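Q: Sequence in, structure out?
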Amino acid sequence: MSDPAVTTIQAEALGLLEWPRLAEQLASFASTTAGQRACLALPLPENLEQSQALLAETTELLGLDGLTAAAGGAGLSFQGVADIAGVVAHCAKGGCAGGDSLLDVATTLAAARRLRRAIDEPELRPVCTALLSAMRTLPDLEQRLLFCLEEGGRIADRASAPLEGLRRQLMEGRRERRDRLQDLVRRYGALLQDSVVSERHGRPVLAVRAGAASQLPGLVHDSSASGNTVFVEPQAVIALGNRIRELEGKERDLELAVLRELSGLVGADGEALELLQSILVRLDFALARARYGQWLGAVRPELSDGPSAGFELKDLRHPLLLWQQKREGGHPVVPVTISVGESLRVVAITGPNTGGKTVGLKSVGLAALMARAGLFLPCTGSPRLPWCAQVLADIGDEQSLQQNLSTFSGHIRRIARILDALPEPGGLTDVGGEPGPGASLVLLDEVGAGTDPVEGSALATALLKHLADRARLTIATTHFGELKALKYADHRFENASVAFDVETLSPTYKLQWGIPGRSNALAIAGRLGLSEEVLHQAAAQLAPLGEGEVNQVIAGLEDQRQRQQEAAEEAAVLLARTELLHEELLLRWQEQKDQSAELQEQRRQLLEQSIRKGQQEVRRIIRRLRQGEGSMGPGRSGPGSSDLGETARLAGQRLKRLEQQHRPSPERREHRGWMPAIGDRVRLLALGKAAEVLAIAADGQELTVRCGVMRMTVELAAIEGLHGEKPTPPEPQVQVQVQVQGKRGLGGRGPDVRTERNTVDVRGLRVHEAEAAVEEHLRNANGPVWVIHGVGTGKLKRGLRQWLETVPYVERVSDAAQRDGGGGCSVVYVK
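A: Exactly. Output:
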């Protein structure tokens, strides 16, 4: 990699693929000037581990930025982050920085502390959290800078006691001089051209008429262009002005002393500040990559460590053309699909000019570079490709009149440099069969062009065979028909072509795999009105060479491919209709089931009514029998009355048993423990449609499902199985937290007793200053922390409480006991 020739040919490839232009587009998504410079440089990592780390950073910040935006914000904010590299380096060398530059250091420290709070989550964002672990936010330095500096970089009066006293004297002297000048304006108003006190050479003057200048004692500093007005500093304020000038000089000296002190503090922490700046730049760079990928609609690629791994890029779109489409209203970008197996080494793309061959070459090259740089790819699905240590290209016309080079000569010289940069034959693996340092991707546009067709075809064939031994993948565009036959003699070769519509005489920009492109020159000439006699003679000339038959074979393959594609589309439509029919049948079956249950319930209610009427009739019969038995007197019952009573009693019992048999049994809840798993299909009760389970919450109470093109989160009770199974939620896990009081052991929790070590006094500080002081105690706390903020107006207490609610590792906050300060002290319990 250190060979200058190798570096040069790789830099040429980046220029041919327009990598700097992509870097400019990426830089527009950066939040800071330093981040924009990092995007414009857009470095390429030296190994696979670095690229995977960059992809992980992009993924983590993309998720965090989306969560922040979903919560109502504008995403992850870098507001307040300035480029402090220059001022830190200046202070580290003993220089004195200005107030505005030192204030930038303070705002950057505050922004870094805010970003660390937002990002620090080891379980969700392990890579970015590990990156922040080495960063120090230096709260003491931030507080000192903010204490001494005001908005605009002005040094505050409180920065130095002598400075405060001197400024008080200055203010009194200026007020006294102003009062004297106003008194002179009133006394000598008749001599003045204007009653406004102006300034010349830093001294206050009055505009006096030229003829009356001798009547106002003082020092003349200037005159008007016409000579009618002179500007006089009255004698009464000259001595006072000199005193003010002297005090202003002392003020500058005291301010310079404060700036030197602050610059010394910044220089003392120069290494920590340089590391903080580099981490912030890296985070901004990662966020820019995430936002750029989201804007492109890109997905994260999977990089393989084996140099012989395949390329799977579905619906890949050229990012620069996609930018033109979205930002500049360009034409829609036609995607291409690249599917290269592990054994494939060379792909020859044929087809007409302006058909999209070169765009396909550049798309693949940019995809390999973007994945290596930690960028997402504008694809669909899950793109996979090897980590490419080399992306070498020969694209475009190399004709140069100044260097006396023809197109052919220019291509040959660049291809020679490409061959010098590639590993030796068999270099895809190291000695012993271990994977090499990375894959090599070679892109050749119009290989062998610019010379005699026969010799150019032979040279192109030999070159591609040589590259098949040395490069992981070579993609070449060509018009030579002989290269189309290489596929059938060597399994490492594959054909592809860009489609062309003969009816409209225009390319479709679609890439077809497995079918070589055929010449359309005769068809195009015929459509454009060329003589039929000439076309027949041309066809006769092609027949002895066999090119006519080859073109017929290619045309047949294209027709067959078109029919297969149409059949596949019809099958997809049929499958979609089948799924809709299946869902409709399930819905109809459920409706019929509900109607059957309702009909059975109606019949059961009618039967119960009939049974109740029968029971009432039996009771009336028994009552009449008993009444008739009583009217006949004792011992004179009618014949068969006891038999009739017994019969009525038995009839009543049978009716009661019948009622119990048809009474609906109470519903019993089935505890079969059914729970859907990821990938299962369930039915949404609200929509009555089937959906696929994508994710399950940790407590099992919510599911993320996809129904058609919709993706939603639903409760467990809102779904059921396709066969009517009701889900059983998992038993909640009871967590018991035990708080141990007493002496702190090794690694244990500290005592819930206020001591000097777990108490921080923030009275008199501003809210942001108090936040920094409290955060340092909380990060080292092993138990509750007592924060003394006082009562006062309550502004400091409210600000701290609102901030503590956002800190993830704070469990709760409460007022301290009366003996520990009551409402003037808060107790912060950490998790």
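The chain has a mean pLDDT of 81.
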